[in-house]
Structures are given as structure tokens and as C-alpha cells.
Design goal:
The structure holds 2 protein chains of 2 kinds. Helix content of chain A is 28%, strand content 25%. By secondary structure, chain A is an alpha/beta fold. Chain A has one domain: HUPs (Rossmann fold), CATH 3.40.50.620. Chain B has 11 helices and 9 strands. The chains are: A alpha/beta, B alpha+beta.
Chain lengths: 249, 390
């Protein structure tokens, strides 16, 4: 289970000196698509056995997210410590994660289709390529009959079911089941699950020479100010604007 | 926008990982389940059953109790749970307080092994709801003179009397009822369906509207002999329960105050008058600074009291001070926040008027503001001032 800690989708993002100011992010959370993937991985484990290993590549603060994963049922935790993810390009992150998966001898990999911060969307296919595994993207549900594993994914006309065999990678879209919430028992159990912390070098991955350099971040453009109208005489003008400019009626 | 709790003195850094995780779990639940639905629950005058199920599934009922399937959390964690629940609504915190501190606690502390094994595992999961019958129509601050009586009839007890202002009463599966047996206050477990027991709901409240409040009526109510709490006599029984509930309230009030402060701050920053946000005016800043100051003091009071609860060095008067002070400032913050919201403050679009109305009850129940002052007065002077009798 590959997880990424990102600024909470409700947290305010501020840009300072041409960079997102991470110190100003009030809340860090598990990336939402990863949450659906984790839920599906836990359901697959409950239905067919096995063990869920939660893996993240990120700074020290990401350890909290691994503990959160343990609180809802992840069995063991692996933290590849990289203090500044922006120093790595996507292929390097994929190499780290693929090496981490290989180390755990996992044959089914779950991840989100994209992280809520970078939205690059390359992790699932990239890790699958390095592991020489099948890859199904835009997945909403994974089931197993004991032999093959079936994933439901969005297709042009609705949904399609794809059967694959391990090793395989499932990159999740929004899942179809409600996410489980932690409970006190899970939180108590999570205390006992200590993450194994490794560096990329421990996995034999070279993190020098990123092929990408970020020139700068800019905040989204401010919305243009709204228009105010008062009095019954403005009704015709407002209706005209709603019809011709906003195209809502 | 994500809720950002005011934590001016970084109380967060004093919490354990486990305490923070429990706090965040309840905070997320309140954001997701309580806040979007609370106004409807208040309008309908119901405590949604889904909330009972969720509280049970999260495993937070009877938070600090150990064994019998109970969570066994620290008192700090229990306080944080109360704080987050009451940020949603005092009625939700009341449900949890009554279940954990007033119904489960006396069984856990004063019950027989059979009673503990029978009731506690089903109460911590929320399967069974409990309530607590102490207050009577004519005996509120003075429960020692209660009228409700139990008679020993050989193979059963016969209970007669009435209790009032009982949270969860109508929806409860069992009630821990305090009654005089041969002139001595004893605790009895009364179950829904016991002959001679009814629990009509009290209506017409302007406060705690999402909480069920009831009368408990006992008319020749027959109680099996094994339902008396064997290990306590006198007011020590109910007062032990109240100490725990009052401790929880001292944290809960911070949650209500935080909700009002957060809403007032946001409103003041966005409300433009005389071409400027009202947050830029000195009178408004003065109010916000007062709120921050009092919330911070209340947090330090509650946290330190929690540590004393956890290491067993607390005294009841310290709980009185924390309950009284924190509810008092929360109510004043709610009123001040309503003022900052102007006319908008009376709308259910904002939480402030609901918290304000709720806190009027919280100020009165579990020992009124004045009674807690008398408890402190007695502590300071050695002279009780509850009654003119010596």
C-alpha cells in the first residue's frame, strides 16, 4: 500500500518566495485517493487473508500518516525517509517505492491514481513498470475469488471489469465504499506498530541528479470581483447576463 | 476551510500521540456527522440514533474506565473527547457524559462483578444507553433531601418517587437511580420495562434541543434484589459520578467556546462595514483578544486538572473551579461572539446562538455556578454556606 502525506484538501495554501510555504500548512493528511486504495486493500485482506504493508516516501512528519494507516488496520509500516520530496523527480520516487515494495515481497500494490498535491499521476504506472507488474488505473473496487484479481475501473461508456494476476498495481480513483474511520481499539493497536525507517540508499536507490527542477510556484489567480445589482429595474440586465455571459439559463 | 483550533500556548505539544489521534478522530467525526446535521436535530428535537452507533463504534463511551471492554484511555483523552463533541453541540457531549460518567462509572466503581460484566460491555459499544436519576422536581442543588424511596420487600425492592431533568431518560435501556433505603441513599439499576417505571420526555426546551431530557417516574416499581449497587452508601455515590462528569464539562465548554471564537474571528475578518473588515476595529479586536485570553486560561486549567486526574492527586474543589470557570467564560464568549456576528448571530447559519442557549443549561446542570462557588467558599473558610442549619 503506497501512501503519500499531502496538505489537507481543506487547508489554506500560501506561497512565499515563489514556493509553497509548507510550514504554513495547518493540517497534513493522507492523499484522498490513497485513502480509497487503503480501504480496498484492507477489504481484500479481510476477505482473503494476507498482510497490508503501508509504505510512504516522505519527510519525518509523514510518520503520523503511517500511524493513521495502522489505526485502521495496516499490519506493518515502512517509511522511506526523504526530507524534501521536491528534490526528487517522479522516476526517482517510483524507483524508491518499487524497491520498497520488492523489499516487502508484496505481490499486490495499491495506490491512489494521483496525489492531491502534485497531481502527477505517474506513481502507479511507474512502479508497475519497474516491478514488471500489470497495472490497472482509475480503479474503484478490487475483488478476488482466490485466483485472479478483478478490478472495476471507469471506461468510456461506464465501468469495466479487468481481471489480472499478481504481480499487479491498482491505482485508485474514488472507491465505491465508505471509508472506515479509526476507533480507540485501532489507535491503541497502532501504538505497538513501529514503522521501519530506511533511507533511499538503504534500498540501493541513487537519489542524485533529479531531472526536474521547479522554477517557482504561483498561487491561483484571484477571482474577479462579483457584480452587484439592486432594485427591480435591474432584473432584465441580470437575466441577460445569466443567459449570455454565465450561460446558466 | 479546515477547522483550526485555537492553541495559543501549544497545549498540543503536551499531548501523547494516542491522545492526539483520539482527539483528531472525534474532531473529524464531529466535522463530518454532527456539524452538518445539528441544526436539523435541534429543530426536530431528537438525538439521531446514528450518532449513538458511531460513538459506540469509535469506542469512546466510558473513555477512562478500564476493563469490561471499556476503552481505558487517559483522563486527558477523555477531556479531549468531551471538548471535540461539545464543539459540535453540548447535547452530543451530554450524551457521552451521561453514558460514561454518570451511568457506566457507578456500575464500574460500585457495582458487583455480575453487574459490571452484564452492563458495561454493552454500554461501551452504545448498544445499551444509560441515564442517571438524582435530581427531583423539588430537590436540585439539595439532593440529600430527595423524596424517592426504596423499600426492601424481601425478594425485591419497591421504588416510589420521581426524577426530573434526566438526560437520555426516554431513550435509555437502563437508569442508575439514587433513592433512600431506610433513610440512606443507595444506587439502583432500573431497566426499561421494569413494572411501574416510565420515562416521559420533557418538551419545550430552548436549550440542548438535540438532547433527550426526561422525567423518570416510579410507581410501585419492582426491582430485583441483585440490582442494588452493593459498594456505596450516601451522597458519595452520586457525587463521585458528578466529579467525573464535571471534569468532562470543563473540557467540553472549551469546545463550545472554540466554536464561537472560530466563527466570530472568521465573521469579523469577512464582514465589511465603513469600508473595512470589522476585525480591523479596536472594539472588535478587544473582544477577540478577551476570548483568546480566556480560552487559553481555560485550556491550561483543564489540562492541569486532567494530569491530576490521571495521577490521582485531584480534589473535588479543583473540579468545581474548572467546571464553573470554563462554562462561565464559554457562555460569555458565546454572547460576545453573537454580538460580533451582529444580527446574523441569531441565525442557525452560525453556531453561536445555539451554543449560547446550550451553555445556559450547562451553567446550571452538574452543580450550578453558584453551588460551585459555595463549594469553593467552604474550602476557603471551612464554613459551609449551603444551608442556614448548622
Amino acid at each position: 500500500m503506497l501512501l503519500k502525506q499531502v496538505p489537507d484538501t481543506t487547508a489554506k495554501i500560501s506561497v512565499s518566495g515563489g514556493r509553497v510555504d509548507e510550514s504554513a500548512v495547518s493540517k497534513w493528511s493522507m492523499s484522498p485517493y490513497d485513502e480509497y486504495a487503503l480501504e480496498s486493500a484492507l477489504q481484500l485482506k479481510e476477505a482473503g487473508g494476507g498482510e497490508v504493508v503501508a509504505i510512504t516516501c516522505g519527510p519525518a512528519r509523514a510518520a503520523k500518516m503511517l500511524t493513521d494507516a495502522a489505526a485502521v488496520g495496516a499490519d506493518s509500516l515502512l517509511h522511506i525517509l526523504v526530507e524534501d520530496l521536491s528534490t526528487l523527480d517522479s522516476t526517482q520516487v517510483q524507483a524508491i517505492l518499487a524497491a520498497a515494495v520488492a523489499r516487502t515481497d508484496s505481490d499486490i500494490v495499491f495506490c491512489g491514481k494521483q496525489a492531491a498535491d502534485t497531481n502527477a499521476g505517474s506513481t502507479g504506472p511507474g512502479v508497475a513498470h519497474l516491478l514488471d507488474a500489470s497495472c490497472v488505473t482509475m480503479v474503484s473496487e478490487v475483488t478476488s475469488d482466490g485466483g485472479s484479481i478483478t478490478a472495476m475501473r471507469a471506461s468510456a461508456g461506464g465501468n469495466e471489469r479487468v481481471a489480472v494476476s499478481a504481480p499487479c498495481v491498482f491505482a485508485f480513483d474514488k472507491g465505491i465504499t465508505e471509508l472506515r474511520r479509526p476507533n480507540v481499539r485501532g489507535i491503541m493497536m497502532a501504538k505497538k506498530k513501529v514503522a521501519e525507517t530506511l533511507s533511499p540508499a538503504d534500498l540501493g536507490v541513487d537519489t542524485g541528479g533529479s531531472s526536474v527542477s521547479t522554477k517557482g510556484h504561483t498561487p491561483p489567480l484571484e477571482k474577479p470581483p462579483g457584480q452587484q445589482f439592486e432594485g427591480a429595474e435591474s432584473v432584465a440586465e441580470v437575466v441577460g447576463k445569466l443567459r449570455d455571459e454565465a450561460n446558466v439559463i | 476551510m479546515a477547522y483550526e483550533a485555537l492553541d495559543f500556548y501549544d497545549i498540543d505539544s503536551l499531548l501523547t500521540d494516542e491522545e492526539r489521534m483520539v482527539r483528531d478522530m472525534v474532531r473529524d467525526w464531529v466535522d463530518e456527522k454532527v456539524i452538518p446535521n445539528i441544526e436539523k436535530a435541534c429543530r426536530d428535537g431528537v438525538f439521531p440514533d446514528e450518532w449513538r452507533v458511531d460513538l459506540g463504534e469509535m469506542g469512546i463511551l466510558g473513555a477512562p474506565l478500564k476493563g469490561y471492554g471499556c476503552p481505558g484511555l487517559s483522563y486527558i483523552a477523555y477531556g479531549l473527547i468531551c471538548q471535540e463533541l461539545e464543539r459540535g453541540d453540548s447535547g452530543v457531549r451530554s450524551f457521552a457524559s451521561v453514558q460514561g460518567s454518570l451511568a457506566m462509572y457507578p456500575i464500574w466503581d460500585f457495582g458487583s462483578e455480575e453487574q459490571k460484566n452484564h452492563y458495561l460491555p454493552r454500554m461501551t459499544t452504545g448498544e445499551w444507553i444509560g441515564c442517571f436519576g438524582l435530581t427531583e422536581p423539588d430537590y436540585g442543588s439539595n439532593p440529600g433531601d430527595m423524596i424517592t424511596r426504596a423499600e426492601d420487600k424481601g425478594d425485591h425492592y419497591l421504588l416510589n418517587g420521581a426524577k426530573m431533568w434526566i438526560t437520555n431518560g426516554t431513550i435509555a435501556d437502563l437508569a442508575v437511580v439514587w433513592a433512600k433505603l431506610d433513610g440512606v441513599i443507595r444506587g439502583f439499576i432500573v431497566e426499561k420495562g421494569d413494572p411501574g417505571f416510565t420515562a416521559p420526555e420533557m418538551t419545550g426546551k430552548h436549550s440542548l434541543k438535540a438532547s433527550v431530557t426526561s422525567e423518570l417516574v416510579f410507581q410501585d416499581c419492582v426491582i430485583p434484589k441483585d440490582r442494588i449497587l452493593p459498594d456505596v452508601e450516601g451522597l458519595r455515590g452520586p457525587f463521585s459520578c458528578l466529579n467525573n462528569a464535571r471534569y468532562g464539562i470543563s473540557w467540553g465548554a472549551i469546545g463550545a467556546a472554540q466554536s464561537c471564537f472560530s466563527s466570530a474571528r472568521e465573521y469579523a475578518l469577512s464582514r465589511i462595514q465603513f469600508d473595512h473588515p470589522i476585525a480591523s476595529f479596536q472594539l472588535v479586536q478587544n473582544k477577540l483578544a478577551w476570548m483568546l485570553r480566556e480560552i487559553t486560561k481555560a485550556q491550561l486549567l483543564a489540562y492541569h486538572l486532567g494530569k491530576k486526574k490521571d495521577d490521582g492527586t485531584w480534589i473535588a474543589e479543583q473540579i468545581s473551579l474548572a467546571k464553573m470557570n470554563n462554562v462561565d467564560i464559554a457562555l460569555e464568549i458565546a454572547r460576545m461572539a453573537r454580538d460580533i456576528h451582529g444580527a446574523n448571530g441569531i441565525l442557525d447559519e452560525y453556531p453561536v446562538m445555539r451554543h449560547m442557549a446550550n451553555l445556559e443549561s450547562v451553567k446550571t446542570y452538574e452543580g450550578t455556578h453558584d453551588i460551585h462557588n459555595l463549594i469553593l467558599g467552604r474550602h476557603i473558610t471551612g464554613i459551609q454556606a449551603f444551608t442556614r442549619e448548622p
